[in-house]
Amino acid sequence: MALITGVVVAGVVLGVVLSRSGGTSGTASGSELFLQAANKPGPDPFTESTAKESSTTPVTPAANAPESANVTRGVSGSTPGLYGGTRNTASCDVEKQVKALRAEPAKNKAFASVEGVQPPAVPDYLRSLTPVQLRMDTRVTNHGYRGGAATNYQAVLQTGTAVLVDGQGVPRVRCACGNPLTPAVAQRTVPRRTGDTWASYRSQNVVVVLPATATIDVFVIYDPHLDEWVGRHRGDSDGRRDEKTYPPAKPSPAASVSSASPKSPASKPASPSSPSSPLSSAASSSDVSSPPTSSSSDPEYPASEPATTADTSSSYDASESALTSPGY
Prior knowledge:
328 residues, alpha+beta
C-alpha cells in the first residue's frame, strides 16, 4: 500500500484551476466540469464501447494533499503505478475501435482532426497506443461527436476508466465511448461540477497527466487483482507481452511544489533542488484552443462546440527530475 499511495505524492501542485470557461476572457462565468463514471459512455460517443469487461477496476489511492478547489496536481506519464490493468488482458479492444471508425468515414475524419493525424493514419495511430486503466481521477479534454463534427468539454474521468495512452503516457482515447482525448485546458475559475457522481471523488485526488520527456518503452502498471507489478510494452494492444516485474524502488519521480501565479503565460523550469517555481494559468493561442462559449445545465449533455484544434500535447513540458509548470 505504501508503494501504491506513494504514486500520489509524485504530483506537482499546479496553482491553476482546470475548468471549462463559458466566457472568452477565462472568467468564472459558465465554467463547467463534467464528471464521467468509468463504465458509462457519456454523451455524444464517437463509437460503441471498446472497453473490455474483464478488466479489473483499481481502487482510488488516498491523496496526500489538502482539499482545495483551486489546485490540480500534475503527474508525469512515466510514473510507475500511475496506470493499472490486468496482466495479459488489454483494457481496450483496439481492433474494434479501428473497425468502428473505419465504418464511418466522417467520424474517422473528426477523430483524426482532434488527434492531429491524417484520416488514413488513424488505424496505425490507434495501434501505436497502449491500453491501460486510470488509477487516479484524471482531468482531460474529452471530445464528443455531434452534428458531423467533434465537440470538446472539460471532464474528470473516474479511476478505473479504460484508456489508450501515447508513448509519453498521455491519455488519448476513452474506450467506453471511443472519444479522442487531449490534455486539459487551464482556466482560473472554479468550475461547476456536473455529470456523474462517485463516493470516492475528492477534488484533491484529481490529477492531470503531463507527458514524459522521453518515449516510454515499457509502462510499469499495477495489477490489483493479482497484487503485482507488471511491465506492459508500448503498443501492446492485447497485453500478451506483459511481464511480471519487481515493485519499483521509487514509484514516483521527484516533484516540485508550486504556488499560483496567473500573471505570466510562461514560466522558467525549476531546478531539481528548488522546492518551488511559479506557475502560469494563462494560455497563449499556440498552446491550447479557446474554450467553447456555451454552457449547459443538463448533466447528461455537457455544453460543447465544434473542436477547433488538433493535438495539444506540445502545450505540456515536464521534467522527470522536477515537474514544473506545463506552460498552459
